[in-house]
Structures are given as C-alpha cells and as structure tokens.
Specification:
single chain, about 290 residues, alpha/beta, UDP-N-acetylmuramoyl-L-alanine:D-glutamate ligase, four-stranded mixed sheet, globular, binds magnesium ion, kinase, transferase, PfkB family carbohydrate kinase, Ribo/fructo_kinase, PfkB_dom
Length: about 290
Amino acid sequence: MARIVVLGNIARDEVIHLDHRLREGAHLQGTPPAARLGGGGANTAIALAHAGHEVSLVAAVGTDPLADELLAELSRYGVDIGPVTRISGPTTRSLVLLDPEGERTIVNLTRARESRSPRRLLDLGADCVYVRSNGQNLAGLLREKAALCPIVAQIRPLEEGHLPVQILIGSHGDLDTRFLADPLAESRKLAGDVLRWVVITHGGEGAEAFGIGGERLRATAPDVPVVDTTGAGDSFAAGLTHALALGLDMTQALPLAVRWGAAKVSRMGSFLDRDAVREVLRESTGRSSPNRP
Ligand SMILES: Nc1ncnc2c1ncn2[C@@H]1O[C@H](COP(=O)(O)OP(=O)(O)O)[C@@H](O)[C@H]1O
Ligand SMILES: [Mg+2]
C-alpha cells in the first residue's frame, strides 16, 4: 500500500435531518443535532486508511476538549495525527442540514485555521498527496512537493492563491460558469505547467476528466439509493488518490473514484466506514489491477 499525506480540515458535523427540502422562508421540522466526525481532510484520510494506506493528516484543530475527542477517533481509524497542530480557540464545527432526498447543505459554525503555510508537509514522505485546504497561501509549498510526488488538489478560487499540482478536482456545483466553459484553461491559470488532469464531479451523473494532451474521459455513477450526500466529493477524492497512489492511470482511476463516491451517498455518515471501503475494493478487484505493486 502507499504512503499518503492529506492536507485538509477536521470538523465536528452536527447533523439535522429535515422533514422537507430546504426552501428559503420555510418553516421546517428537524431532528435534534447529532454529532459525528467530519471535515474534508478527515473524511478523505479515514477512507484511505480503511483501504490500507499509511495516511498522515496535516490539519489544525482548536484547544478545546472537542479537539481531543476528534483526534482520538481519527487515531482509532489508524490515521497518523502527528502533523495536526493546535490553534488557540475552538475546533471547526459545521451544521449539516440533511433533506429527505439525502442532499446536504453545510453551514460552517466555527473554524480552526492555520494562518501560515504548513511547511511540515515537506518533511512527510509520500507517494501521493491530497489537498483540500482554503485560505492559505500554498503555492511555494506545493510547487516543492509536486516535484517529488503527484498531488491531487481541490479547485479553489484563484484569489486564494495558485495550486501548482498535477491533478485538480472540483465539484460541478461549486464551480462557476466561466470555469466550466473551459476547465483546462482555467485550471492552467491555477496550476501552471505542472498540471496533467482536471477532474470534475457531477453528482449522480458521475465525473469527467480532461487531460492536457486533449484526452476527455467520462465515468457514469451507478444508480444507488441516495441517503446522505455528505462527503461524496471527499470519498470520490479518496478513491482517486487511492488509485493514483497505486499507479493506476486516469482511465482506471476515474470509474473507481466514481464508485467510491456512489458508495458514500448510499450510506449515512460523513465518510466511508471500513466495511464500505472493503466492499468498494472488492467490487474493483477484477475490473482493474495496479500497474505496480
Ligand atoms: N446521487 C448520486 N448517485 C450516485 N453517486 C453519486 C451521487 N451523488 C454523488 N455521487 C458520487 O459522488 C461523487 C461526488 O459527488 P458531487 O455531488 O459531484 O460532489 P460534492 O460532494 O462535492 O457535492 C460523484 O462523482 C459520484 O461518484
Ligand atoms: Mg453533491
């Protein structure tokens, strides 16, 4: 298995199940909030650890007791929390409003944010790095790291700084029309010459990938019952990172990632649990095999 470093956040999700779809001005009924571990970095790191990888999480938490609770849970899943730093103040918390169709709306409540670029990333040996981080200037750091291993990073607005990485991924719903009109050109502005692929997810429709050599790939999502779309993009990213870390090419990695995303939406939770990861791994065996061990 591979050594994977994840840069992203750790949060407590407080989930409210709504009786109807969210609508402006509506008066809805919800369940009392139920707490669970979440956050983009944690969701991806846990799924990758469940797949058997050696995963280190570079993140920031607060100095409250909640931080200890979340870190203990991450450790139990086998995620290396050594590179997690503590920032004076509260740990990140998000409200997750889950409608009867399984679609989620997220409201950020508090955020533990590292103001400086997490240079410790450079000290961590990795076969592949996954980045889901906003607000920090990561350009110099990622440029150095991308010279050593492939990096998969979530697309973010150019105003938040360059992302010199080989693979960018983003969700259709989060991208503006200008980006979607020419994903490669827009991604080049963000990543520069190191860019190889841009991957865009389309919810229940699956995902597509655009290669700098003009390749265009599509993978359709299996038809699954949707119960909770929280963490779909994070699980997709875990599947893609898993495949690329094992040396699969994009034609194999894309359909695999789509299955990891679909597996997540068909289950409750912010991340794929161990059984779910085992199941997607079993499903994938036979469909594709790694190019190198
Ligand atoms: N309704 C769905 N049915 C099957 N798979 C889904 C569904 N919604 C999401 N997925 C899977 O999760 C991936 C990411 O979902 P998407 O909604 O695009 O991202 P995000 O979680 O960022 O909103 C999709 O590419 C797909 O693999
Ligand atoms: Mg979605």
